[in-house]
């Protein structure tokens, strides 16, 4: 009986963990699409480029909203903004030859440390009370 | 005037993020509309403010108000964790973002 209960409890926990990991992947995905639309807003000229930009905006917000149902919205938005900014700066350096000064890389490192820290302090069952059971 | 628009843009962003929280709570189309309205107004006001303010400063302040405001509102209205480590991590992320925008 105890064993069955524990096994059940552990699968619950594993399920929460899996759901939480998926949410973090969704935020990273949202940030990747944010990089695409930020570049698009700056450089798009052909109609298909604008179409890609608009699609990227919709996808990034969809992923952002999805993740906010499973993790605290303040956390999700800070990570989204952080990863999006880091990605945009790196993309600017790699794709458009903007200088990546040591200070920029240092700030990106600091930013990523903050994101990892936030992931560590956010419990797997971080869903706020009101969203529980709605997923 | 540009500064007023910039601060308003930050507040609209904060409002947009709050509507994401409301959407999950209430699950209605009204929240979706308010969300689009919030972010739409925010981007519009930001681009208007950027016509006369330096881009890096405008971006840094806009993000600062929007994302930190969103975190504070999450704690006040949606019962999100207030522990020091969480707040410190958010401050580090947003500080680094503001720094990157300023030196950008």
UniProtKB/TrEMBL annotation, chain B:
UniProt keyword annotations, A-Z: Cell membrane, Membrane, Transmembrane, Transmembrane helix, Transport
Annotated organism of origin: Paenibacillus silagei
Alphabetized Pfam families for the sequence: Multi_Drug_Res
Membrane-related topology note: Multi-pass membrane protein
Protein name: Paired small multidrug resistance pump
Localization per Swiss-Prot or TrEMBL: Cell membrane
Main location: membrane
Family in the record: Belongs to the drug/metabolite transporter (DMT) superfamily. Small multidrug resistance (SMR) (TC 2.A.7.1) family.
InterPro entries: EmrE-like, Small_drug/metabolite_transptr, Small_multidrug_res
Sequence intervals crossing the membrane: 6-24, 31-50, 56-79, 86-103
